[in-house]
Amino acid sequence: DAGVIQSPRHEVTEMGQEVTLRCKPISGHNSLFWYRQTMMRGLELLIYFNNNVPIDDSGMPEDRFSAKMPNASFSTLKIQPSEPRDSAVYFCASGREGVGGELFFGEGSRLTVL
Amino acid sequence: KQEVTQIPAALSVPEGENLVLNCSFTDSAIYNLQWFRQDPGKGLTSLLLIQSSQREQTSGRLNASLDKSSGRSTLYIAASQPGDSATYLCAVRRGWETSGSRLTFGEGTQLTVNP
């Protein structure tokens, strides 16, 4: 059983560049979450999708961040333009709503913005 | 607003010792509580999920308990091994509604098991 798959695992970019992070949830899961982890703030929820529809995006820091889920097997998180303070590990997690609610996390995408 | 606290922040024990990690939360209206472990540079691995109607869950050497009314959960690790060294996180979830869908995480307990 493949878990949640994220790419890239590591990304180093310069300030002002566009960054796109990708996530493939576990097949059959109908909820998808994007989290950000930093030493200072711990794990923060950015956005939550249910059945491909964004339900809660109150954690998205500002308009530079956007997320899409065009189908049940793919989601992207885009940062444009990127800033050094966006440097963090971004995690994608998926689960099956209505069936216990257990979440499974990917390995994360470590973003460094210079 | 839900707040989750984990005590201790760090713990170092000799191999073979039984240990308890603590998690407390301020709002007892939770849907479930999940324990994770995170190894350095890795993602979160789900260890145990306890529904609000349950009192405990067990998996191998791990046992997690939940006392919803007092806002507490414990993770018991029996016969600890060096491979158990990791950061352990607890997270609570309120429900399906918009604001409740998020997991609220504690800051974690960093466990080191010395050979």
Short description:
The complex is a heterodimer of chains A (114) and B (115). With 114 residues, chain A is mainly beta. Chain A has strands at residues 5-7, 10-13, 19-24, 31-38, 42-50, 53-56, 65-71, 74-79, 88-95, 103-105, 109-113.
Walk me through what this model shows:
The complex is a heterodimer of chains A (114) and B (115). Chain A has 114 residues and is mainly β. Chain A has no helices and 11 strands. Chain A has strands at 5-7, 10-13, 19-24, 31-38, 42-50, 53-56, 65-71, 74-79, 88-95, 103-105, 109-113. In chain A, the strands form 2 sheets. In chain A, strands 2, 4, 5, 6, 9, 10 and 11 form a 7-stranded mixed sheet that branches. A 4-stranded antiparallel sheet of chain A has the order 1-3-8-7, with no helix packed on it. In chain A, a hairpin with a 3-residue loop joins strand 4 and strand 5. The termini of chain A are far apart. By secondary structure, chain B is an all-beta fold. In chain B, 0% of the residues lie in helices and 56% in strands. Chain B is globular. The model of chain B has no long low-confidence stretch (mean pLDDT 92). Chain A binds chain B through residues 4, 31, 33, 42-43, 45, 48, 50, 55-56, 58-59, 91, 93, 97-98, 100-108, 110, and chain B through 31-32, 34, 36, 41-46, 49, 51, 89, 93, 96, 98-99, 101-103, 105, 107-108.
